[in-house]
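name: query_chain
kind: protein
chains: 1
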Amino acid sequence: MTSKCPVDHSESQESCPVDHGSQSSSTWARFFSTTNQRSDHNLSSEREVSTIPKASDGNWVYPSEAQFFAAMARKNHNPQVVDMKTIVPIHNAVNERAWFEVMKWESGRGGEACGGVKLVNFKGRPNDKSPRARWKMFLGYAAPFDRHDWVVDRCGVQMRYIIDFYTGRTDPATKNVSFYLDVRPALDNWEAVKMRVETFCRKWLGSSTTQS
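structure:
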């Protein structure tokens, strides 16, 4: 059983999936209640297995409520026990959505021939705005609260994906926060360029470009 999770929060990969650093603390802080309940003795230690395959064997495993609480407390984010049952499922769902978006890009690219695409490694880069994020900010859009780079293996071919995390609109009735994920292959090689061009053609030009 691994102690790691699919997304890095710092320079170390012994952290948990969505960044809890200064860049995203305001996003997660809005889920915290004002109740001063800091003891973690009522928190579950059970961990959920993700749908994200590791490069070695098995799948990545998400932190338990107790681990998530401890990680937030270490970063002085003043977590509350009562909030963990809300935040942890959101935290896991965001990562599952990120993998879903990666797999949309990978669909039909041949990964099925060797047992499926797998997540090799990951890195949190909250202070590094991607070119697309900077362009959106120039146009007046809000900055992403976090960025992650995920490297996947497709039958021996490694592809890096950039994931920009944005806070969506808040439901005025429930005060629930939504998230928008901008996921795409990094332009590290011609394969990534080809994927981007094909997707652009299908989306905007109605092209029936075949994948190979």
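note: Residues 45 and 148 are 26 Å apart (CA to CA).
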